[in-house]
Design brief:
Helices cover 55% and strands 0% of the residues. The two termini are 14 Å apart. It is elongated and about 50 Å long. With 89 residues, the protein is mainly α.
Length: 89
C-alpha cells in the first residue's frame, strides 16, 4: 500500500471532519427522513476519517501508529526521526 504523507493525512482529516460536521448539523436541523439520511452521511464521513487515520498515519520505518495533528519528530515505537520528506518519493 502506498504511503501518504502525514501532512496530507492531517489536512484530509480536518477537511472531512468539517464536512461531516456540516452534514451532521444540517441533518439535525431538517428533522425528517431526509434529515436522517443526511445525518447518517455525516456519521459515515466521520467513520471514514477514522479509517484513513488508522491506515495511513504510520511510521515509515516500523509501521507504528503516529498521532495525527501533532508534529511527530520521533516515532514513539522505534525512536527513528520521522520527517515529512520521508513519505515523499
Amino acid at each position: 500500500m502506498n504511503q501518504i504523507s502525514l501532512k496530507t493525512v492531517a489536512r484530509l482529516s480536518a477537511i472531512l471532519f468539517i464536512l461531516g460536521l456540516l452534514f451532521f448539523i444540517i441533518g439535525c436541523c431538517i428533522g425528517n427522513e431526509v434529515g436522517l439520511i443526511v445525518l447518517a452521511v455525516g456519521l459515515l464521513i466521520w467513520v471514514g476519517i477514522i479509517i484513513i487515520i488508522a491506515l495511513f498515519s504510520r511510521c515509515p520505518y516500523c509501521g507504528g501508529f503516529l498521532k495525527v495533528g501533532y508534529h511527530n519528530h520521533y516515532c514513539p515505537h522505534c525512536g527513528n526521526y520521522v520527517n515529512q520528506s520521508d513519505y515523499e518519493k
